[in-house]
Design a protein that fits this description.
This protein has 305 residues and is of the alpha/beta class. Helices cover 41% and strands 19% of the residues.
Length: 305
C-alpha cells in the first residue's frame, strides 16, 4: 500500500492492491483525527455511473460530530474512477468486489463500518452487511439498484418493456464496451455536448436545475466495460443472502427514481424486516446530489440510533 496527501489538505490518498486490481482510496479524517481499530468508519460506495466524487455534495454538508466525527473512507471501486488501470473485470462479481472493499478497510486498519452506498454501491453495501454482520454497524442504501435491475440483466428483451430506462442504458453501455477505448472516448465526447442533459434526464427529477458540470463529471466517470461487468454480476445474484443482515438498514429513493422502483424497497423490507424506507419528494436517482441536506438528515437519524 502506498499513501500520499491529496490536493485537499483534509484527505489522504491511498493506493491499495486488491484481487481486482489497485484501488484508489481517499480518507477524510474525522474531528478526532484519523483513528482506526476501534473506530467505526463511514464508508462511501459509489454507483456504476460514478466515482467517489459523486458524494462531494453530501460530504460538504456533513457535520463533524456524532457518528460523522469518525473517518470517512471514499473508495473508487476497481474498474471506476482512478481505479481503472489494471482492473481485472473478468473476475468481477458482487462477492469479489465486496472482498476488495473489505480488504481495503482491513489494510487501513478499520474493523467496523457504517456503509453508505448509492445505486450499485447500495447493492454492494447490502451484500457486505450480510457477509460481515459483526463489522457492519449500519447500511444506508441510496437508490440501490437491486431486484428490477437483476431481472433486466437476466432478460434484456423483457426488461426493455418493463424497465426501459435501465435496460436501454445497459444495452448502450454493452455497445460502447464492445468498441473498447473508442467507446469510452465517445461517451466522454458526448458528455461535453448539449446531448448529455437529455440523455441523463432520467437520472434526475428536474434536469434543468442540475449544473452542467454534474453531467460532464458523469460522462468522465463512464466506464462501459465496468458497467457491463457489474450488470453481468447482478444478473444471477442470490438475494436470500440478505436474510443474514442484522444491522439497521435505511433504504432511500427519490419519488421520480426510474432505476429504483418502490416495489424494490418493499421487497427488500420483506427479506430484511428491520429496513426503514424513506422516499424523498421531487427527486430522482441521485438523491445525494439533488437533495443532500435531506439525505444527511436521514443519515443522522440512522446513526443516532
Amino acid at each position: 500500500m502506498s499513501v500520499q496527501q491529496a490536493s485537499v489538505p483534509t484527505q489522504w490518498r491511498h493506493v491499495i492492491p486488491t484481487k481486482l486490481g489497485p484501488c484508489i482510496v481517499h480518507v477524510q479524517p474525522g474531528s478526532r483525527g484519523t483513528c482506526t481499530g476501534a473506530a467505526t468508519a463511514g464508508v462511501h460506495l459509489h454507483g456504476a455511473a460514478g466515482s467517489w466524487t459523486t458524494f462531494q455534495a453530501l460530504l460538504s454538508g456533513m457535520p463533524l460530530s456524532g457518528a460523522t466525527a469518525n473517518d470517512r473512507v471514499l473508495i473508487d471501486l476497481p474498474g471506476w474512477g482512478e481505479s481503472t488501470e489494471g482492473a481485472s473485470l473478468e473476475e468481477f462479481s458482487i462477492e469479489t468486489m465486496a472482498l476488495a472493499v473489505a480488504g481495503v478497510l482491513d489494510a487501513l486498519g478499520y474493523r467496523r463500518w457504517n456503509l453508505v452506498g448509492h445505486s450499485m454501491g447500495g447493492f454492494l453495501a447490502l451484500h457486505m452487511a450480510a457477509a460481515w454482520p459483526e463489522q457492519t454497524a449500519s447500511v444506508a442504501a441510496i437508490s440501490a439498484t437491486t431486484f428490477s435491475v437483476s431481472e433486466a440483466c437476466r432478460a434484456p428483451l423483457r426488461g426493455l418493456y418493463r424497465f426501459p430506462s435501465f435496460t436501454g442504458m445497459m444495452l448502450a453501455m454493452r455497445t460502447m464496451a464492445a468498441l473498447g477505448p473508442a467507446g469510452t472516448a465517445l461517451v466522454r465526447k458526448v458528455a461535453t455536448t448539449r446531448l448529455m442533459r437529455p440523455l441523463m434526464s432520467p437520472f434526475f427529477a428536474d434536469p434543468a436545475t442540475i449544473p452542467p458540470a454534474v453531467f460532464r463529471d458523469l460522462g468522465d466517470d463512464a466506464r462501459p466495460a465496468s458497467f457491463t461487468a457489474a450488470a453481468r454480476a447482478a444478473a444471477h445474484y442470490d438475494f436470500t443472502r440478505w436474510r443474514g443482515i442484522r444491522c439497521p438498514v435505511l433504504a432511500i429513493r427519490g419519488d421520480s427514481d426510474v432505476f429504483t422502483p418502490e416495489p424494490d424497497l418493499a421487497r427488500l423490507a420483506i427479506i430484511v424486516p428491520h429496513t426503514r424506507r424513506a422516499t424523498i419528494p421531487h427527486c430522482g436517482h441521485f438523491a445525494h446530489v439533488e437533495h443532500p441536506d435531506q439525505v444527511q438528515r436521514l443519515l443522522d437519524e440512522l446513526w443516532s440510533r
